[in-house]
Amino acid sequence: MISAPERKIKQTGCDVRFDNLTRQLYATDASIYQIEPIGAAFPRSAQQASGVIRAAADAGVSVVPRGAGTSLSGGAIGEGLIVDFSRHNRQIPDLNIENRSVHVGAGVVLDQLNDFLRPRGFCFGPDVATSARATLGGMIANNSSGAHVPIYGTTADHVLSLEIVMADGRIEKICPGHETLRAEREKIDNLIRAHIREMSERMPPGLMKRWPGYGLERFLRAPNNLNEILAGSEGTLAAIFSAELKISPLPREKGLGLIFFASVAEAMQATVELLDLKPAAIEHIDRPLFDQTCSFEQRAICSNWIPNRANRFCSSSSTKVWPSDCRPCKRESSGCA
Ligand SMILES: Cc1cc2nc3c(=O)[nH]c(=O)nc-3n(C[C@H](O)[C@H](O)[C@H](O)COP(=O)(O)OP(=O)(O)OC[C@H]3O[C@@H](n4cnc5c(N)ncnc54)[C@H](O)[C@@H]3O)c2cc1C
After folding, report:
1. Helix (H) or strand (E) holding 218
2. I need a labelling partner for 298 at 20 to 30 A (CA). Which of 173, 218, 250, 326 fits?
3. Which of 37, 66, 84 is the last residue of a domain?
4. Ligand 1: which atom is nearest the Cα of residue 143?
5. Does 105 sit in the ligand 1 pocket, CB within 6 Å?
6. Which residue, 149, 143, 289, is CA-closest to 219?
């Protein structure tokens, strides 16, 4: 027996499923939580997404946009309608080498995008560990980043424009200086300005990576740019259908430095000093992980390097040489001791 909200949502013509198997599949993501939704929708176009989201809103059903579901905090699950952007929305319709930008559907997976960009000499900088699954829509919504955050920043730093679907079904394009959604921008601006002192204390500029909710301090620095609020909003403000993103030239050379420390505390202290060398990434690897990562053949080489003591820690600092026009690193080469 189909319920009235389900009938209303089905009438939009979008591919929608309310069967038990679909509800169970979409009841989980990579978090510890489990919430059974009423169903899942698979829009093929922004118009279909608009229709299905508006129908859900009219029927009083909440909407949860979803990419690959690799989110760790339960952001991709909910009791309403899951709108899955990863099934059909995987096109890369436009690459503009001159502007260093690419246009992607929200369901494009990060590895798919980099496989497309690499032969052309480019990459998308932020490198989540789940790159084989994570979608660009999910990365924007989570403002994701990876080990190379010192050189590439987070996903929000790479968003040029977004095609979004609002809760009332409006399809809007947002980018810096756009005139759309003026009322929404003013409302957010007023809210932020009312809390400006607390924000500047708790969110000082210069933090490379921070995760507490909306990018209020980014919006404060660029008040005409709603991208800054959409990035990191975890699907609570609008659904992202497609995005125009900045791309970066591939590094011309790469280098890796390994430094061994007797304790985690020493390694952490050295990390602060190593940042002066502008490394592309610094990763801390403890002894048990290092041992497990070494294959049997590699172990022979590793054991020549590292004294075989169980309580020894090592930290690797990788530095890379970037094209001189790449954002943070202007030097021809860099290295670490
Ligand atoms: C082992 C492991 C390692 C991880 N490592 C990292 C890491 O290195 N760095 C990192 O940042 N994260 C990491 N994550 C978390 C997660 O993989 C990333 O945040 C990833 O970018 C989420 O993408 P997704 O497509 O899976 O999004 P989902 O999990 O599907 O969704 C994430 C959030 O975005 C919203 N959303 C998804 N698509 C849209 C859309 N089209 N429009 C609007 N909102 C949308 C959802 O509602 C949800 O709130 C890791 C997770 C795991 C399990």
Report:
1. helix 216-221
2. 250
3. 84
4. 11
5. no
6. 143
